[in-house]
Amino acid sequence: MNAIPFGTGGLVFIGLYLLSLVWIGWLGRQAREENSMRDHFLGGKGVGFFVLLLTLYATQYSGNTILGFSGKAYRSGFSWLASVHFMTAIVVTYLILAPKLFTLAKKHVFITPTDFLAHRFQHRGLNLLATLIMVAALLNFYLAQLTAMGRAVEGLTTLPPDVAFAWGVAVLAAIMLLYETLGGFRAVAWTDVIQGGILAVGFFVLLGLIFAEYGSLEVTTRKLAEIAPAKVLPPKAAEARNWLSYVFLLGVGAALYPQAIQRIYAARSAKALRRSMAVMAFMPLTTALIAVLAGVTAAAHLAGKLDGVSSDGVIGVMMRQVQEQSAFGHGLVVLIFAAVLGAIMSTADSCLLSLSSMVTKDLYAGFVKPEASQQTLTTIGKWTSTIIVVVLASFAIYMNSSGVKFTLVELLEMKFDMLLQIAPAFLIGIHWKGMKSGPVFAGMLIGLLFALSFFWVDEKSGTFMASLKTSGFHPGIWALGLNTVIAVAGSWLARKSAA
Amino acid sequence: MKTTRSYLSPWIWAVYAVLLAISIPWYWPQEVGTIVLGMPLWAAVSVLGSAAMSVFTAWLFVKRWPEEDDDQA
């Protein structure tokens, strides 16, 4: 967060906060009912309304929400209100998925998202492909969270930024691994209560601090209209299409995050789930909207100070200014920093647990050793987490020191084009009994290859593919269209020919 | 409320389509315009449209969740 020198009090507070996470991990271990995969990955019988709401909230809102969204709003202005819409669209997608999936999950004791696909389609190729897509998307997401951890710590110490980044990633990832290995899902969900609580308070404090420091939103808007009118004007046609594309890309894609699907499985009752979802529908207004307003405020008052990747640190720059004003502001900035850490760690730990559950249950038990005992699989799950942490944390540190940097929103988008291709299998497959496994598999595979092929398309080549790439819609959306047509038309034709 | 698919009724998705069409600012002239709630009018409409979508979604979750699934605890 761009050189915020924390005093002893601030560092003690952050230290106690991190220690409390490990303590909760230990409590999670004490609460263990049996040494089984369901107990480790979903917390046995599951969690009630309060814990479910905060774990959904803390998992859904990540480092991207605070750092990435405010950075993007700093760069593009009010048009990034698109983020409020797509975060709402995620909850809308759950309307299609959650009620039926919850019932099935309880009845058939699902642990991973692929368990649903295996139950519904009984197609090993589909299980493997969907699992690989989800694992690839989550590895990407986890890497983004590790990078965000490093960035958040960079400015806290007097160490050189690269060294601070490396220590930040290593220490925070180790703490996360420790509490997750100790307590599994319980540790992750219970730490989410603390992390989500601090995050929720942090967003409101952030809003208050920004208004106090920079004046009302109207002052900001008028100033921005003078110095950078493009950031205040409504989007042009192509940008409006891009906005719509974001609503579908992230609205559907993020609802299909494996860790999000597993939280549907982990609800103790339908009542707890639907009440949590109802509250989640309002969260974009208390999080993404505030991040956008923070970014827009910075665009007006800190114009030209940051660009590219470094604009993801815009909150840090603002907080340093606030901190210089008063001791009261200083304390609140420490709280915001804790909220940022909470946002990142709570998303990263859920991601890690989900990754290890899929590698263990869907890949190892699904394809390598189906007869492995629950105890063996749980142990393998913990080792998988450890290996993922070590490899990806090293990669994040290497990427940072070698100068290969992406902005957080870029990292966020890359994986959704892939993840979106599992949507027909879940969203249509759960409701339409006539959907057949072969066409679903073919649609998913072709959709995935089509989405990835855009990577090599030159935007200026004037070809059909180039026109799709520059249309304002993301490659994943075009690929999803193709995927859905293949899955639906293929299933329909298969039914006709069978009849 | 009786059927498992009541939350998938066409009218529900028509409401979402209308709210989305209002919320995405594709129909505004390229000017800053009036400032409402501290934002340009188009941005305020967009935020209020999103808020309406949140209220509608929460209502659907609370009132339209398929009843028989409630027994699955």
List the chains of the largest interface with their residue counts. A-B, 48 and 42 residues
Our count of helices of chain B gives 2
How many angstroms does the end-to-end distance of chain B come to?
A: 19 Å
Largest sheet of chain A: none
| Terminal-residue CA separation of chain A | 63 Å
Q: How would you classify the quaternary structure? A: heterodimer
Structural class of chain B: mainly alpha
Structural class of chain A: mainly alpha
Average predicted local confidence, pLDDT of chain A: 89
Sheet with the most strands, sense and barrel status of chain B: 2 strands, antiparallel
Radius of gyration of chain A: 22 Å
Shape of chain A: globular
Query: How much of the residues of chain A is beta strand, in percent?
Result: under 5%
What level of helicity do the residues of chain A show? over 70%
The 3D shape of chain B can be described as elongated
Strand tally of chain B, please? 2
What order do the helices and strands come in, and which of them pair?
The complex is a heterodimer of chains A (499) and B (73).
Chain A: H1 8-30, H2 37-42, H3 49-60, H4 63-76, H5 82-108, H6 113-121, H7 124-154, H8 161-214, H9 217-227, H10 237-253, H11 258-265, H12 270-280, H13 283-286, H14 288-301, H15 314-323, H16 327-368, H17 374-402, H18 408-419, H19 423-428, H20 437-453, H21 464-469, H22 475-498
Helix pairs in contact in A: 1-8, 3-8, 3-12, 3-16, 4-14, 4-16, 5-10, 5-12, 6-7, 7-8, 7-16, 7-17, 7-18, 7-20, 8-14, 8-16, 8-17, 9-14, 15-16, 16-17, 18-22, 20-22
Chain B: H1 10-23, E1 35-36, E2 39-40, H2 41-63
Antiparallel strand pairs in B: 1-2
Helix pairs in contact in B: 1-2
Describe the structure.
The complex is a heterodimer of chains A (499) and B (73). The N and C termini of chain A lie far apart (63 Å). Chain A has helices at 8-30, 37-42, 49-60, 63-76, 82-108, 113-121, 124-154, 161-214, 217-227, 237-253, 258-265, 270-280, 283-286, 288-301, 314-323, 327-368, 374-402, 408-419, 423-428, 437-453, 464-469, 475-498. In chain A, 57% of the residues are buried. Chain A has 499 residues and is an all-alpha fold. Chain A is globular. In chain A, helix 3 packs across helix 12 and helix 15 packs antiparallel against helix 16. Chain A has 22 helices and no strands. Chain B has 73 residues and is mostly helical. Chain B has 2 helices and 2 strands, in the order αββα. Chain B has helices at 10-23, 41-63, and strands at residues 35-36, 39-40. In chain B, strand 1 (35-36) and strand 2 form a beta hairpin. Mean pLDDT of chain B is 85; it is low at 69-73. Classes of the chains: A mainly alpha (499), B mainly alpha (73). The A-B interface holds A 78, 81, 84-85, 88, 91-92, 95-96, 99-100, 102-103, 106-107, 216-218, 220-222, 225, 229, 232-237, 240, 243-244, 247, 268-271, 274-275, 277-279, 281-282, 284-285, 289, 431 and B 4-5, 7-8, 16, 20, 23-26, 28-32, 35, 37-40, 42-43, 46-47, 50-51, 53-55, 57-62, 65-66, 69-73.
